[in-house]
């Protein structure tokens, strides 16, 4: 049952045995919060924290509305209504609570490395029409320790974590040590997923230990980089977080970039500075090799610095072979090999294509096409920009690549002086260039506003200057700005609601 | 580049970069900065704060509501304060950079007319 604002204000729909009653408090707030609490699929302590915070919010809002002259009942109903549907809010909270610890790549999408179980395949190109993958990184296949190799795990989802670990130890005839503090930290909540008395939450039927851990991490919304891991050390099985082992196994390695820099600079038309090439190399590595771990992407397990042509990489040892491989590939592959229009390589159903750009910086253009709603099916973690050749490299199906290509064609155009500045667009409006060089904003009801200028200012929000308005600005906006429709076809429907008339 | 949720994240992190704050104040600050155009609804804001905390971008602590802020029924209530973490500062820098990149790209192909030629 959802406590709607109307009924909540009356305070009767949720009145029943067991309902919390708080003396002196507006009953509807407690009832609504109780209803919300029951809908959230999070630990009890988290539910209490959410309700405490929303309670403080609601009371302050009610007080404010009453100061504006509303009755307490109306103010209460209004404050609750502002929170929206209880089911939706509960869903958002549940989702936020279990938000994957994986961090998204921020600026530069590269070929995705979804986890240790995924083989990273990166190709270089020989030329259009006859593309041959020349190299692919294959992570060394690590056999599990002999004691664990033949273990098959079958467990009920209610099996306690402590019993789970101990059973593995018994199966392998090895003592087990569990780093509970590290494991508790993985879930971040007050009642962690990894706690001795919690159930493992997944039914396992005949899984190897590695497969079981992959399943368990996935269930907890943890990537292999951030989740549960194990090692066999000194005759014991040690379970801890992957981050714990990564810190133990961090090594400092230097790489000589001379060859990679020479290969890039020599083939770039107009040349590129050494620093530009080094920056490009660093971007490539931090986007390709376990992106979440790099300090450049918000991580704290891997970092790099350059001194001259030396690259110093401090990272878990498991990353170093991948770094080395990427750098070796860069040293042997000239950029023109990558920049052939329409060049592509097929690996299974997936193709890789390079789109060279002429007018717009590749990194910025990639960011724009990632923002286009019409391209949302594209997995943009499998896309990269190469500053050296000013190209965008995308991996995906032929259909997706065609759509990306069309978007790039639309984006990669020279600036024309008669067009108007646009800083940010709102998805609820269709915006197109007018014949005379102005802009036309079209609302869903067909209303059109011709503008001299459309701008968003951090202080003033999005505003338009209508034609003939003598500089007077009108607000055009509502929610959060997002670019999504500037480059799409006119046939595309853009939802919106309001538009100020002239 | 910025999606809708990333924009909300940018707004929240920006506000918290100016000092500790709590949910209700964040909604007010966002509205005030945008002259009412930008509305961080509580239904969006609070789950977002939880997510950012989960990611380690912000930290939180509970504090008793001060008497001058509380109504008669407010005594004994507490308020959850949020602060930007070092990791959150880095993320904010990345978000700002993404925003600037987007703006530069749009200006590049739509074209930029000097401000003084505009009608403002």
Top keywords for this entry?
heterodimer; A: 502 residues; alpha+beta; Phage tail protein beta-alpha-beta fold; 4 domains; five-stranded antiparallel beta sheet; B: 120 residues; Arc Repressor Mutant, subunit A; 4 helices; 3 strands
Compact description:
With 502 residues, chain A is of the alpha+beta class. Helices cover 35% and strands 18% of the residues of chain A. With 120 residues, chain B is an alpha+beta fold.
Can you offer a commentary on this structure?
The complex is a heterodimer of chains A (502) and B (120). By secondary structure, chain A is of the alpha+beta class. Chain A has 4 domains: 5-97, no CATH class; 107-140 and 251-414, no CATH class; 146-247, Phage tail protein beta-alpha-beta fold (3-Layer(bab) Sandwich), CATH 3.55.50.30; 418-502, no CATH class. Chain A has 16 helices and 17 strands. In chain A, the strands form 5 sheets. In chain A, strands 13-14-15-16-17 form a 5-stranded antiparallel sheet, with no helix packed on it. In chain A, strands 9-10-12-11 form a 4-stranded antiparallel sheet. A 3-stranded mixed sheet of chain A has the order 2-5-4. In chain A, α11 packs parallel to α13 and α12 (274-288) crosses α13 (320-332). Chain A is flat, with a radius of gyration of 28 Å. The two termini of chain A are 45 Å apart. With 120 residues, chain B is an alpha+beta fold. Chain B has a single domain (4-66, 78-112), classed as Orthogonal Bundle (Arc Repressor Mutant, subunit A). Chain B has 4 helices and 3 strands. Chain B has a 3-stranded antiparallel sheet with strand order 1-3-2. The longest helix of chain B has 25 residues, at 86-110. Chain B is globular, with a radius of gyration of 18 Å. Chain B starts with a helix and ends in a 10-residue tail after the last helix. The model of chain B is unreliable at 68-74 and 115-120 (pLDDT under 50).
């Amino acid at each position: 049952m959802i406590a709607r604002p109307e009924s909540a204000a009356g305070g009767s729909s949720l009145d029943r045995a067991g309902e919390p009653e708080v003396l002196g408090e507006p009953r509807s707030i407690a009832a609504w919060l109780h209803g919300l609490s029951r809908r959230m699929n999070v630990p009890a302590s988290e539910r209490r924290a959410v309700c405490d915070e929303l309670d403080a919010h609601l009371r302050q809002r009610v007080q404010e509305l009453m100061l504006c002259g509303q009755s307490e009942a109306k103010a209460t109903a209004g404050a609750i209504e502002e929170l929206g549907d209880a089911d939706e809010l509960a869903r958002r909270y549940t989702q936020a609570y279990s938000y994957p610890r994986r961090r998204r790549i921020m600026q530069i999408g590269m070929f995705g490395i979804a986890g240790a179980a995924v083989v990273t395949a990166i190709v270089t190109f020989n030329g259009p029409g006859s593309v041959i993958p020349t190299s692919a990184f294959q992570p060394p296949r690590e056999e599990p320790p002999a004691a664990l190799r033949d273990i098959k795990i079958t467990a009920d989802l209610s099996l306690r974590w402590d019993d789970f670990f101990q059973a593995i130890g018994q199966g392998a005839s090895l003592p087990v040590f569990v780093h509970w503090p590290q494991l508790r930290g993985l879930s971040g909540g007050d009642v962690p997923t990894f706690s001795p008395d919690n159930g493992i939450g997944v039914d396992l039927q005949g899984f190897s230990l590695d497969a079981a851990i992959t399943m368990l991490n996935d269930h907890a919304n943890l990537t292999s980089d951030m989740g549960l891991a194990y090692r066999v050390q000194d005759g014991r099985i040690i379970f801890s977080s992957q981050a714990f082992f990564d810190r133990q196994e961090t090594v400092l390695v230097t790489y000589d970039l001379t060859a990679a820099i020479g290969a890039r600079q020599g083939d770039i038309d107009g040349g590129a500075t050494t620093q530009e090439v080094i920056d490009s190399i660093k971007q490539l590595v931090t986007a390709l090799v376990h992106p979440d771990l790099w300090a450049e992407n918000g991580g704290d397990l891997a970092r790099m610095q350059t001194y001259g042509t030396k690259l110093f990489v401090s990272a878990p040892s498991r990353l170093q072979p991948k770094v080395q491989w990427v750098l070796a590939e860069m040293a042997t592959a000239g950029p023109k090999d990558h920049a052939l229009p329409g060049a592509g390589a097929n690996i299974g159903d997936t193709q890789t294509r390079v789109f060279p750009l002429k007018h717009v910086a590749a990194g910025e253009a990639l960011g724009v096409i990632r923002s286009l709603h019409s391209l949302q099916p594209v997995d943009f973690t499998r896309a990269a920009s190469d500053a050296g050749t000013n190209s965008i490299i995308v991996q995906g199906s032929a259909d997706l690549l065609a759509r990306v290509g069309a978007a790039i064609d639309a984006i990669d155009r020279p600036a024309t002086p008669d067009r108007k500045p646009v800083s940010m667009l709102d998805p609820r409006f269709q915006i197109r260039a007018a014949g005379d060089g102005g802009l036309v904003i079209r609302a869903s009801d067909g209303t059109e506003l011709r503008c001299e200028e459309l701008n968003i200012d951090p202080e003033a929000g999005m505003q338009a200057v209508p034609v003939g308005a003598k500089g007077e600005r009108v607000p055009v906006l509502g929610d959060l700005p997002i670019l999504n429709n500037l480059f799409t076809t006119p046939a595309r429907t853009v939802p919106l609601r309001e538009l100020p008339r002239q | 580049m910025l999606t809708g949720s990333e924009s909300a994240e940018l707004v929240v992190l920006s506000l918290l970069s100016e000092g500790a704050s709590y949910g209700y104040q964040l909604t007010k600050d966002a509205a005030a900065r945008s002259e009412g155009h930008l509305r961080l609804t509580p239904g969006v804001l609070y789950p977002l704060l939880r997510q950012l905390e989960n990611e380690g971008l912000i930290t939180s602590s509970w504090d008793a509501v001060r008497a001058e802020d509380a109504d008669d029924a407010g005594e004994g209530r507490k308020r959850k304060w949020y602060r930007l973490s070092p990791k959150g500062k880095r993320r904010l820098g990345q978000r700002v950079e993404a925003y600037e990149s987007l703006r530069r790209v749009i200006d590049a192909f739509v074209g930029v007319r000097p401000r003084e030629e505009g009608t403002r």
